[in-house]
Design goal:
The complex is a heterodimer.
Chain A: H1 3-9, H2 20-55, E1 63-71, E2 80-85, E3 91-96, E4 101-105, E5 111-112, E6 124-129, E7 135-140, E8 144-158, E9 167-168, E10 173-175, E11 179-184, E12 188-198, E13 202-203, E14 210-220, E15 223-232, E16 237-246, E17 253-261, E18 271-276, E19 282-287, E20 291-296, E21 304-310, E22 318-323, E23 329-334, E24 339-346, E25 356-364, E26 371-376, E27 382-387, E28 392-396, E29 401-406, E30 418-421, E31 427-432, E32 435-442, H3 450-454, E33 469-470, E34 481-482, H4 485-516, H5 519-533, H6 537-554, H7 556-577, H8 582-587, H9 591-620, H10 624-629, H11 636-668, H12 672-703, H13 721-745, H14 749-757, H15 762-791, H16 794-799, H17 817-824, H18 833-869
Helix pairs in contact in A: 2-18, 4-13, 4-15, 5-13, 6-7, 6-13, 7-9, 11-12, 13-15, 14-15, 15-18, 17-18
Chain B: H1 2-9, H2 28-31, H3 33-63, E1 71-75, E2 80-91, H4 95-99, H5 103-111, E3 116-122, H6 126-129, E4 133-137, E5 141-145, E6 151-155, E7 160-169, E8 176-177, H7 183-228, H8 233-269, E9 271-275, E10 281-285, E11 289-294, H9 300-316, E12 319-320, E13 325-326, H10 329-360, H11 365-377, H12 382-405, H13 420-445, H14 448-456, H15 461-490, H16 493-498, H17 525-534, H18 539-578
Antiparallel strand pairs in B: 1-2, 1-5, 2-3, 3-4, 6-7, 6-11, 7-8, 7-9, 9-10, 12-13
Helix pairs in contact in B: 3-18, 7-8, 10-13, 10-15, 11-13, 12-13, 13-15, 14-15, 15-18, 17-18
Classes of the chains: A alpha+beta, B alpha+beta.
Chain lengths: 870, 580
């Protein structure tokens, strides 16, 4: 052997060089395998990075994409009272108190000529606008109100239809002086022009100036309604409703107006703003001093003052007061710089006449100086505020965050006089006289912060901050509720209940297979159980939802009875088995015993079905649904059953500790059948004692309010966690079983042999030697099973009812993270907030399962190393 | 060994211990019998659960297509009802219903503690009754008959019709009284069915081909406009070509449409008149009838024939009636196509990665971390891969491909939405850990000495792998691939995000150029189960179909898994013997 290498070193007579093709192929294979392998590994890990990268924008507030300051010659003659920006941020429009409308091209400041509002020489003393700014209402010093419309008309034209001789404004836009033409991709042009229309004066309070007004438009297209509220100089508040009906035959419109005078406000007030809700059922009047008066106008004929409350800090004055989109949140700005959001909520301690009170839900970050201007988003809960120092902040009410702080433009120390948040929330315009400052902003996900996703959030209409998931609804003013907590809870609940069911069965089966069956039985049983692991979960979901759920609903009492009867039956059979002669029992300890177990389970199930009505009568006062609902019956019997198992273990332990040794010593001296009889007696005594203990414990727990009902059992729904847990058991049992069985079988044979040789029985060996050695492997099995349960999708989609609730009720549904993704992602807008949130849900699932599996794998490897060393 | 056994036997003949009482037999605590039974009960319960589930699926699935007798019920109110018994149950009628019963019936109800047995009958005739099913309480039934002339009629629309045949007419002829077994009627039915098939063939294939050609040419013209600019010479030429082609194809189309009109007019004349059990008449074209038989007048051979014919229809035909009737051929095809495409991707990449990890990478801490992670990826929820597939493959990759190669079809996406390719890739990512782990194990099981022997003989590394390692590891690799296929075929959740649809108009492989359409969305057996069981108008009507589909899917997957398990068992035996 040693001579051979030396031989090779001799000068070669044969050509020992490897053929080139072999080298090339080897190099090639080397490269391909290296690159391919690394690629796959990188790709697999890139998943996590990709998910994370999709999620990040949720937490980065937003940014300014462009900003510029310009001056324009289109300056309103008087103070600006209305400001508008079109959807495309092309035109800015301001109206002054004399009805003068001035418009300019935003990007360049070029004036655009637009029609004027004819106030007949009067000056408006108050103004109101709908959120979109299309409808306006002006109040005048003579007590009249005039309604107006300001339409920004949009038309899409083909390039060849554009009139000639347009003046170029910038790269995109041209103008003929009265309209702006924007070039679009695909040889199209968008024409923007302004149309105004003003109605005739409506007299509200003869001769007394209107100091504040608010306006709402509602109703169907063929029956539009207008609601407006006014306060005049004498402090008289009025609420008016106008409904226009168009005669379908003649085409004539008839408007009927009704006005009601509200209870008098205290004299010497200086009302700065009024606000009404869309349905005109609430009326708010805000005084400069910060007092806000709320009227209940649900009964139009008999309005009443229900609440008067101070909403700004003492010493400050109220400067801005308006509803957010949706008219549920009142935003109050003060001279102290505070910006607070108030909800009208039912409160038990409300010292108001209707039981509701204005409650401060969000105290937003305060400005340094007095808040002067506010502009509400038309599509979300966003708003822009400006202070006297020229700072403009963009905020979001739900998430209570300041999204962007726009610093005062250079050289501008003074306050702006007009502030507009663009209709699509993509820009802000602040103007003072002829100078203006415009920002294009990009805030894709204003409603999400870590706190809104994982913390409690105070949503509109809710009495307190809550965890809620409700991603979409029919209306624009809907406030999306994006808390992942209910979904995480749902996942946790499904996992917990399914593991409670699956883990004992899987581990019991694994121990039995590995320690007490013949290896030939094992060779058939194990693949059969593994086969169960490959059952598609959609099949399990279908069976659970369409077969199991109705079955359990009909036979709920029998199911509960079976849960009692199966373990009880098995124990009873075991004690009877002990009565058999030892030789006979030993000889038939294999297949026959195992078959008898099947028979016992079958008999127990049959008994449970027979005894279902009896159990229902004993435990649930005759009707389990009504009982679960809390309508009839007491907790006692059910608590007794629930606590029977732990009590049994407690009593058994107590018995072993106290009398165990003496009992065994006595038993050992008896012939087998007598010992068996004695054991039955002991078992029955222990069972009786444990029932007693359970009863006492149950009474005690129920007395201190820890009863099962209202906690883990409550109102029954057909698709519930019980069914999910059972179905998920099918998915989890085989996995836990296989891995646990592997771990138990991996315990070296010599340990088993040594224990048996020392005289230990198979049971003692299993419990005292095998199980402790394999414990870490068994634990890893449970962890892997947990990972599977956490990520299971189809079963929870189909059988869990998909209700995002936070309650432990086993008779109720749940919505898990995975199911939520499967249900909502197909409908989510690409790159929208919901879309990214679902990616976050996926990332959470990924991280949790990856962590759980890694822990399990590390434990398993360590166990394997240790087992190999033994 | 023999020696050891002999020495062990030595003490046995000594009978000294037998003189003492045998303690072991009476120390019951040491035997732990109650615990053993509990553990064994767990195993028995687990096995019973699997067996019960499989039995339930098999029983329901296998029996669905067996022709069931039609019962004609005489109800207490004098009403007659014909239907197929579906299932039974008990319920608690309202007190006023019970009070209105005759005293004998009331006594029976009272004896059952207010519970009443009832049976669900499939009455069919949705067009007449507005419902397919009806519960009948036991106290309502006055008598049951099974008349031999009741027919079970499977139709293309409105579900099943149950009733009697009155008459039929062919062409402009007079209606003729007939029974189902009449040769004339059966011949007329066969002719009408054949005609309907040819109408369908013309509409689908020939007219479909014209539409396809037109669409392709139109997109081609747009493509020219993108490449050479709108209004350029090439574009004008393409437009002219398109116009001439359009006019030519429109002539073809008109000819085909006339042919279809003619056939349809003939079809409308061949009609049959049926009457339900109460005598309400219903006329329908013969071509609408898929199959009809006198359910109570079948011999065993006929029953088997109908049973097999229905199975054949199920596996070879397209679904109808919102997937609750007909076949699942597109779903079978979609499942297979998706799984095969997945294997084509997953097998080479999985094996290459395993080779890299075992044979090329330096074994150290890093590689073991990678190994653990790859192992764990098999446990990451499938829906996460679905999310990734949608975001990365469909939207990002697919969107980029669309912009680069199919700008003429935008804004409607080609690859930029879910489809067969993206589904396969997603599932490939999902199953690649399975293949890696199995392959690694198989490669590791190849004895080191064999590798060393090969290298010592002068073979290169690749030659060693190619000729020594891979052949030995092949069974293990096959096991991994089969398990990956089983896993892939049984996943539904990720597919819901990346390309499975309720009803796909076209298969992903067909006769139109370029024959393989990986961008098309497809149908899938697993999703079919979800869809029919949960999204259909009448889940009761769909339930039998769901069971049959489930049976099919489980059979498919169990077959794959069983193969893998058998291969694995043989593999480990083979290596146990050949270990050096």
């Amino acid at each position: 052997m040693t001579t051979e290498p030396r031989k090779l070193k001799l000068p070669a007579r044969r050509d020992l060089r490897t053929r080139r093709s072999v080298i090339v192929i080897d190099r090639l294979a080397d490269g391909i395998i290296r690159v391919g392998g690394l690629c796959v590994i990188v790709a697999v890990f890139a998943i996590m990075l990709y998910l994370a990268q999709m999620v990040v924008p949720l937490f980065t507030g937003g940014g300014v994409t462009a900003e510029f300051a310009r001056t324009t010659s289109a300056v309103p003659a008087g103070p600006t009272i209305v400001d508008r920006l079109d959807d495309y941020r092309t035109l800015a429009i301001r109206i002054d108190d004399g009805g003068g409308v001035s418009a300019f091209h935003l990007a360049t400041g070029t004036p655009v000529e637009v029609p004027q509002l004819d106030f007949g020489g009067n000056r408006a003393t108050a103004v109101a606008r709908t959120l979109s700014g299309d409808d306006l209402a002006f109040g005048f010093a003579d007590g009249t109100v005039r309604f107006a419309r300001l339409d920004i008309k949009v038309a899409i034209l083909a390039e060849d239809r554009v009139p000639a001789g347009l003046a170029r404004l910038d790269a995109r836009d041209r103008s003929d002086g009265t309209a702006v033409y924007s070039s679009l991709p695909g040889a199209q042009v968008r024409r923007l022009s302004v149309a105004v229309d003003i109605g005739s004066p409506v007299t509200i309070g003869a001769g007394v100036p209107i100091v504040a007004i608010d306006l709402r438009k509602g109703g169907a297209a063929e029956r539009p309604t207008t609601v407006f509220a006014t306060v005049d100089g004498n402090g008289i508040a009025r609420l008016s409703q106008a409904e226009t009906r168009t005669n379908l035959l003649t085409g004539q419109a008839r408007t009927t107006t009704g006005t009601t005078v509200l209870p008098a406000l205290p004299p010497s007030l200086s009302i700065v703003a009024v606000a009404i809700t869309d349905k005109a059922d609430q009326f708010y009047a805000a005084d400069r001093g910060g007092m806000v008066y709320r009227f209940d106008t649900r009964d139009f004929a008999a309005p009443r003052l229900v609440e008067a409350v101070q909403l700004v800090p003492s010493g400050a004055t109220l400067t801005t007061f308006a509803f957010l989109n949706g008219e549920q949140s009142l935003v109050v700005g003060s001279s102290a710089g505070t910006v607070d959001v108030y909800f009208r909520l039912p409160r038990a301690d409300a010292r108001t006449q209707d039981g509701f009170a204005l409650v401060r839900a969000h105290a937003m970050a305060p400005h340094a100086g007095p808040v002067t201007l506010m502009s509400m988003s038309q599509r979300s809960k966003m708003l822009a505020t400006a202070d006297a120092g020229g700072h403009v902040w963009i905020r979001h009410s739900t998430s209570n965050q300041t999204l962007l702080k726009l610093p005062p433009a250079a050289g501008e120390g003074s306050a702006y006089t007009a502030l507009m948040l663009a209709p699509r929330d993509d820009g802000v315009l602040a103007a003072a006289g002829g100078r203006y400052h415009a920002w294009a902003v990009d805030i894709p996900h204003p409603e999400t912060t870590l706190r809104t996703i994982f913390g409690k959030v105070w949503y509109e209409g809710y009495g307190e901050p809550v965890y809620t998931w409700q991603s979409s609804a029919g209306t624009d003013s809907f406030e999306p509720k994006f808390s992942l907590v209910p979904l995480i809870f749902g996942t946790f609940k499904a996992t917990l209940y399914s593991l409670l069911f699956a883990v004992p069965i899987a581990l019991g089966a694994a121990i039995y297979t590995s320690e007490f069956t013949h290896h030939r039985v094992r060779a058939t049983v194990k693949p059969a159980m593994e086969m169960m692991a490959s059952l598609p979960s959609v099949v399990l979901g279908f069976i659970a939802a369409l077969i199991l759920a109705p079955f359990v609903e009909t036979w709920l009492a029998a199911v509960v009875a079976a849960a009692i009867a199966i373990p009880f039956g098995l124990l009873a059979a075991a004690y009877l088995w002990q009565l058999l002669p030892a030789e006979w029992a030993l000889r038939h300890g294999g297949a026959l015993k195992f078959l008898l177990m099947f028979a016992t389970i079958g008999a127990a199930v049959g008994l449970a079905i027979l005894c279902g009505p009896l159990v229902e009568y004993l435990l649930f006062a005759g009707d389990v649904m009504a009982w679960a609902n809390g309508d009839i019956g007491g907790e006692g019997p059910f608590m007794l059953v629930l606590l029977a198992v732990p009590s049994f273990f407690m009593v058994e332990a107590a018995f072993t500790r106290s009398l165990g040794d003496r009992f065994h010593a006595r038993q050992r001296g008896l012939p087998r059948h007598q010992a068996g009889l004695l054991d039955i007696g002991r078992w029955l005594a222990v069972a009786l004692a444990s029932l007693l203990l359970a009863y006492v414990l149950g009474l005690g727990l129920a007395a201190i309010g820890l009863g099962a009902r209202g906690g883990i059992v409550d109102t029954y729904t057909q698709r519930n966690t019980l069914v999910v847990g059972f179905a998920m058991g099918f998915a989890v049992i085989p996995i836990v079983y296989t891995i646990a069985e592997d771990a138990l079988s991996a315990v070296p044979e010599h340990l088993r042999a040594a224990s048996l040789a020392c005289g230990a029985s198979a049971w003692q060996t299993a419990v005292s030697v095998i199980l402790p050695t394999a414990l870490s492997g068994v634990f890893a099995a449970v962890m892997v099973g947990m990972g599977r349960a956490v990520g299971e999708t189809m079963i929870v989609v189909m059988a869990a009812g998909n209700t995002p609730l936070i309650e432990m009720n086993v008779f109720n549904g749940l919505r898990a993270l995975s199911a939520n993704i499967a249900v909502e992602l197909p409908e989510a807008v690409r790159d929208g907030t919901l879309y990214r949130l679902l990616f976050l849900a996926a990332l959470v699932l990924f991280a949790v399962t990856f962590a759980v599996n890694t822990v399990a794998e590390v434990i398993r490897l360590r166990f394997r190393r240790r087992a190999a060393q033994l | 060994m023999m020696d050891g056994r002999a020495t062990l036997r030595v003490p046995a003949p000594s009978r000294a211990p037998a003189a003492r009482p045998r303690h072991a037999s009476t120390d019951l605590a040491a035997l732990g019998e109650p615990y053993l039974w509990t553990l064994g009960g767990c195993l028995a319960l687990g096995i019973a659960m699997v067996a019960g589930l499989l039995l339930l699926v098999f029983w329901n699935g296998a029996l669905t297509f067996w022709p069931q007798p039609i019962a004609v019920l005489e109800l207490a109110g004098g009403e007659r009802l014909a239907g197929v018994e579906t299932r039974g149950g008990t319920y608690r009628p309202r007190p006023d219903v019970v009070a209105a019963l005759p005293p004998t019936a009331q006594a029976v109800v009272a004896q059952n503690r207010g519970l009443v047995e009832r049976t669900l009958y499939r009455t069919g005739n949705f067009d007449l009754y507005g419902d397919d099913f009806r519960w009948v309480s036991s106290f309502q039934i006055a008598g049951i008959q099974y008349p031999t002339d009741m027919l079970f009629v499977e139709r293309l629309e409105w579900g099943v019709f149950i009733g009697r045949l009155r008459s039929f007419q062919v062409g402009a002829g007079e209606p003729v009284q007939a029974a189902v077994s009449d040769a004339a009627f059966q011949a007329a039915h066969a002719v009408a069915r054949a005609r309907a098939q040819s109408i369908r063939a013309i509409e689908r294939h020939e007219i479909g081909r014209i539409n396809n050609t037109l669409e392709r040419e139109r997109l081609g013209a747009r493509r020219v406009a993108f490449d050479h600019g709108e209004g350029s010479g090439e574009h004008q030429a393409a437009l002219a070509r398109l116009a001439s082609l359009t006019s030519r194809l429109e002539q073809d189309y008109a000819g085909l449409a006339r042919e279809v009109e003619r056939l349809k007019a003939m079809d409308a004349q061949d009609r049959a008149r049926f009457a339900d059990v109460g005598g309400r008449e219903k006329e329908m074209p013969l071509s609408q009838i898929v199959r009809l038989y006198a359910a109570n007048d079948l011999n065993a051979v006929q029953q088997v024939a109908i049973y097999l014919a229905r199975w054949w229809e199920f596996v070879s035909d397209e679904p109808r009636e919102a997937n609750t009737e007909g076949g699942v051929w597109p779903a079978i095809f979609g499942t297979l196509a998706m799984t095969l495409l997945m294997v084509v991707v997953v097998a080479p990449f999985g094996v290459v990665t395993a080779l890299y990890l075992r044979e090329y990478a330096k074994q150290g801490r890093l590689v073991s971390i990678v190994r653990i992670s790859v192992n764990n990826l098999a446990g990451v929820p499938s829906i996460v891969y679905g999310v990734f597939g949608l975001g990365f493959f469909a939207y990002f990759l697919g969107g980029s491909i669309d912009q680069l190669f199919f700008p003429e079809r935008l804004p409607s996406p080609t690859f930029g939405t879910g489809g067969l390719l993206w589904s396969s890739l997603t599932l490939a990512l999902l199953t690649v850990p399975v293949v890696i782990v199995a392959t690694e194990e198989a490669i590791a099981a190849v004895p080191r000495s064999m590798r060393e022997g090969s290298l010592a003989c002068g073979a290169s590394k690749w030659q060693t792998i190619r000729h020594i390692v891979l052949p030995r590891a092949m069974p293990g690799i096959m096991t991994g691939i089969i398990l990956a296929m089983a896993r892939g075929a049984s996943e539904v959740a990720p597919l819901m995000l990346v390309g499975v649809v309720k009803l796909a108009p076209e298969l992903p492989i067909d006769g139109t150029f370029p024959y393989l359409h990986p961008e098309r969305s497809f149908m899938h057996l697993g999703f079919h189960i979800y869809d029919v069981g949960f999204q259909s108008r009448n889940s009761e009507a769909g339930k039998p179909m769901v069971f049959v589909t489930t049976l099919l899917l489980i059979t498919l997957i169990t077959a794959m898994t069983a193969t893998a398990i058998v291969v694995r068992a043989r593999l480990s035996r083979k290596f146990a013997g050949s270990q050096f």
